[in-house]
Amino acid sequence: MSVSAESYKKVAYDLRTAKQIERRMILDTLMLLAENGFPIRDYQYTGFGSISFVDFIMVHRLLGLRNMLSVEQDLGIKKRVAFNRPFADVKIAMNKAEEIIPELDRDKRHILWLDYDFRTNKTAVDDSAMAAYVLPPGSILLVTVDVEAPDEGLPAEWKDFYENETGAYFDIGWTAADFAQSELPNTNAQILFRAIRSSLSKRPSVSFIPLFSFLYADGHQMLTVGGMIGTSTDERAVNACDFSHSGFLRRSTSDRPYEIKVPVLTRKERALLDREMPCPDDWQPTEFELSKDAVSWYREIYRYFPLYAELAI
Amino acid sequence: MTLLANATPTKRFFILNLTRDLSLEDAILDLVDNSIDAFIRIRDIDVSSAILKAGAGTANEIHAGDAPVRIQVSEETITIVDNCGGITIDRAKEHVFRIGRVDSTVESALGVYGIGLKRAIFKIGKNITIESKTSSDGWRMELDVDKWSATDSWMLPFEEGERATSAAQEGTTITIRNLTPEVKMRTRDPALERRLFDQLGTTYSLFLSRFLAVTLNNKKVPAKPLPIGSSAEINPVIKKLNFESVEVELVAGLAARVKGEWNADRAGWYVLCNGRVVVAADKTELTGWGVHGPQFASKYRGFVGIAFFFAHDPASLPWTTTKRGLNLESEAYQTTRVEMTAAARPALSFLNNMYPSEAAEHITERRLADDLRLVDVRSLLAKPPQGFTPKFSKSEKKKVINVQYKAPSNDVDKIRKKLNKPNMGAGAVGLHTFEYFLRMEVPE
């Protein structure tokens, strides 16, 4: 059975494999930055942990961050969130992001991940703009939004929807074609970048240093953009990092997003493939059928590809 | 012996201070005003008939696109190129660069105080090139603002150039480089282009649909129509007023709905002077809200009023020097403002009936709000920085609120019929429809 282009959509949503790959790619990049002089361990991590706190567990275990804040706006699950807090160093704020962002400590550097599960709307751009305005230089800002094309309507109507919510950050040259299904993720990325750069234009010595633009789908198609807010010194330090093995990075806001494609493979198949990774171009296993495309996708993500197992406890 | 105190203006005052009073967008609009004025002067157009009457009624037939203006804004340069007739050498020598108008002859519809051009270019940048061609002559000026402000002379040197060899060449090009730091910061903002684009469309709404054609960074600016609505059942109030040198027309009514909604952003009074929008969607005292009539409230977001002021001499119009505000001391405006409130009354009554009651205050917040007492702000400033954190009482009882609304009885009957319960109480129908939606559309 050959692995088709759509196979990455068939991965079980509750495991959210693509999201986990994205997290690991981001963490990998943070580790590289730490190796190049950025004191990542001392940064504060702020995100939307919900009840599983996956990213909190990762930044604490793998990066050693001690200062963490999870933001939750649904007061109805207050006890549940508190019950599931993974470590003592994770504080919880039962607030909306917009209430927390201006209160972030300006004497620290931050990793702030606005991991929304809705489409880009006024909240998303306003929060992103506010974050870009307050985060001190050296901080990392990430924003995730849903970029699935709506079921009904035409691009012209979707353009109206986005214009109503985020029109201030529109490029005056955009037409309905920029909101066609294939362009929607990139246009969304541009809206978010423009909101961030609009705030930064008011901070003379600080600019946006792009790092991430991920497109993935565990259910709905999602987009994560991110980068560092920094001075020219920070920019030089980032550029000095060896990103030659981080092909998933997007160092310019005009680059199209990196699409995380996950081939469906069994555990046995992965064990065999891993032995050959990183493999030469055009290599294919002889023991079973696997297309060159699937091998190539696997080579790009194998280091970050989680292995899930059931614990029979 | 008579002593003399020096009252001569300093260049520093003009360049640094006067430029503070207007925004970058307004500076660019001032330059567009000049292009429009050049066109109006050369074609001898009567502004009010040209832009208000359907079908141009002027000496020369005018068409859409007859007055093109191209604006380019980047982080390094701002350029405005027009094809509106140009400036002759004589006018450049004696009129265009004087601060203030030379004599009382009126030569423009939108240029009021004679400072628009200078204030705009000094606001925007330090190196300015102006080139103009008319059918009779042409010239070019290179101005280094810093060098010029160090000299005592108020004269600006320029050189003769080639005249226009075709109608397409008759116009003026202003190129500004070495942008001032504050302007440069604005041009770095991706949202600036959009703001400028929208403002151009609103301010010149009437001109764009007649003869003006503006492009910003090569994108055509569409006219943003004034959002007044009309129908077979409802028409707006229309009233005319005449003052000594000013003619006023008022239109007041309801806005056309967009996607079934009224938006407060578009609501309020629009005041135009010689066709140029001076204030848009104003909801403040400036246009009479809270002065002779009610304050603007959310329920009035369906209201749109338009006040047109026309005068042969733009100095008679009630606008301020930035053309973004209104001069409350103007007699014509004071009287008009009262009339504006009167003209608005019928539409506001309609809206009062449409939205009869305000939503009830939520009880938990209301209890906290009732306990607030007036406090001296100085005692607050003595405290350390703190946030706004209302402390609600611990008891998190299941909160219940009253949902009440009126519905046409026909509709309620239709629902009763559908449910096959002809005697169901209206309240029960309401509850049923509420729970139906909750169950079917809203996940747990």
Keywords:
heterodimer; A: 313 residues; alpha/beta; 8-stranded mixed sheet; 10 helices; 17% strand; globular; B: 444 residues; alpha+beta; 5-stranded mixed sheet; 14 helices
Give a structural overview.
The complex is a heterodimer of chains A (313) and B (444). Chain A is of the alpha/beta class and 313 residues long. Chain A contains ten helices and eight strands. Chain A has helices at 17-35, 54-63, 78-83, 97-100, 122-134, 155-166, 184-200, 232-239, 267-276, 292-301; strands spanning 44-47, 67-71, 90-93, 110-119, 139-146, 207-217, 221-230, 258-259. In chain A, strands 3-2-1-4-5-7-6-8 form an eight-stranded mixed beta sheet, with helices on both faces. In chain A, helix 5 runs parallel beside helix 7. With 444 residues, chain B is of the alpha+beta class. In chain B, 33% of the residues lie in helices and 18% in strands. Chain B is built from 14 helices and 13 strands. Chain B has helices spanning 11-17, 24-43, 47-52, 89-96, 116-124, 145-150, 181-187, 190-203, 205-208, 331-354, 363-370, 377-381, 409-419, 426-441; strands at residues 67-73, 78-82, 125-133, 138-144, 159-161, 171-179, 212-216, 219-220, 237-242, 247-254, 268-273, 276-282, 303-310. In chain B, strands 5-4-3-6-2-1-7-8 form an eight-stranded mixed beta sheet. Chain B has a five-stranded mixed beta sheet with strand order 9-10-13-11-12. Chain B starts with 10 loop residues before the first helix and ends with a helix. The model of chain B has no long low-confidence stretch (mean pLDDT 87).
